[in-house]
Amino acid sequence: MNFIKKKALGILISAAVAALATFLGGLTIGKVNLEVVGAPVFSILIGMILTLCIPKLATHEMVKDGVKFTSKKILQWAVIILGFSMNLGTIAKVGTQSLPVIVCTIATSLIVAFLMGKLLKMNGNTSTLIGVGSSICGGSAIAATAPVVDASDEEVAQAISVIFLFNVLAALIFPTLGHAIGMGSEGFAIFAGTAVNDTSSVTAAASTAEKIYDCDKILNTAVTVKLTRTLAIIPITLVLAFYRMRKAKKNGTQANGFSFKKVFPWFILFFVAASIITTIVGKLPESAFTIFYTEKFVKAMKWLAKFFIAMAMCAIGLNTNVVQLIKKGGKPIIMGFTCWVMITLVSILVQNLSGIYYSNL
């Protein structure tokens, strides 16, 4: 009863906004498909607007605990549930060819983010979140990384906003660009899966490219490459947890209440477990159960993961001062732009070197 009394209202507000954001994210206005924006971005924007209109909403005694629970715990649940969409066997088959491109683009983004963070003298958490979000999978990677580095809601909002900006640009520009510079249909699918950040934007870019290339296999390949990229969440979060532990030990703060158990991303183990379950089911003989699991359950889990992320983004938006966010936005945008450009160039370069660039599906 105490949980319901303290947290229910904040959770319900976040869920209501997520429902509205999900509806908006599924709309098509004229020729513009709002999926390119996505429910999480709509949700964080609505949360910011609500706080702007009702400044004390997120700090109200009946709301604040539920908002905090949503921005922290439900965000972790979203990452866990996302694991059910990962069939490691399918990813291994399709993703192996794209692995050199994935590794090079991830490494590029993380190195660029680190160097730009030092050059621009940026907040460490913000630069980490932008680097991880750009290199792996946008909002999902930020959702997994934020609790590990103990990022504030404002830092998460800053990173999400930057990733969103370049997601939209990529989804709008890349299909025409890829075709214009002579990429084959397979080359573009790998390009979209490695150089576009968020899954919704990868889907939007690949769907548009299918019409331009007159090829109906680009979307599935691009999404599979993207899912292969998503698995990098596991080593990245673990490395960050160990780095934070070493830093705390070096600074002598471990004895003052720092606990590795607290910063270790235990939810990532559940993410891995969910992926293994889906992989095992995928290897079973076809039956009513396996058909239900792959066609109904996995789709439902994908939807629920996106909805939970949208809820968490609303909670983060409610705790974010949009005025301050805009004032501090210059340096993160420069970093995001640099990461985006370098990932794009490296993806094209590695594809050229590996001979994938001109290949067709």
Give short descriptive properties of this protein:
mainly alpha, single chain, 1% strand, 2 strands, two-stranded antiparallel ribbon, 361 residues
Structure notes:
The structure is a single chain. The mean pLDDT is 84. This protein has 361 residues and is mostly helical. The longest helix has 31 residues. It is globular and about 60 Å long. 78% of the residues lie in helices and 1% in strands. It has a two-stranded antiparallel ribbon with strand order 1-2. The protein has 17 helices and 2 strands. α1 packs across α2, α3 packs antiparallel against α15 and α6 packs parallel to α8.
Q: What gyration radius follows from the Cα positions, in whole Å?
A: 20 Å
The counted number of beta strands is 2
Instruction: Please outline the major beta sheet.
Output: 2 strands, antiparallel
Give the terminus-to-terminus CA distance: 56 Å
Low-confidence stretches: none
Shape: globular
Structural class: mainly alpha
* Helicity, as a percent range: over 70%
SS strand fraction: under 5%
Give the gist of this structure.
The chain is mainly α and 361 residues long. Helix content is 78%, strand content 1%.
What topology does this entry show?
Blueprint lengths: L1 H24 L2 E2 L2 E2 L5 H15 L10 H19 L5 H8 L3 H22 L3 H14 L1 H11 L3 H28 L4 H11 L3 H15 L4 H13 L2 H18 L9 H4 L2 H18 L4 H31 L3 H6 L2 H25 L7
Antiparallel strand pairs: 1-2
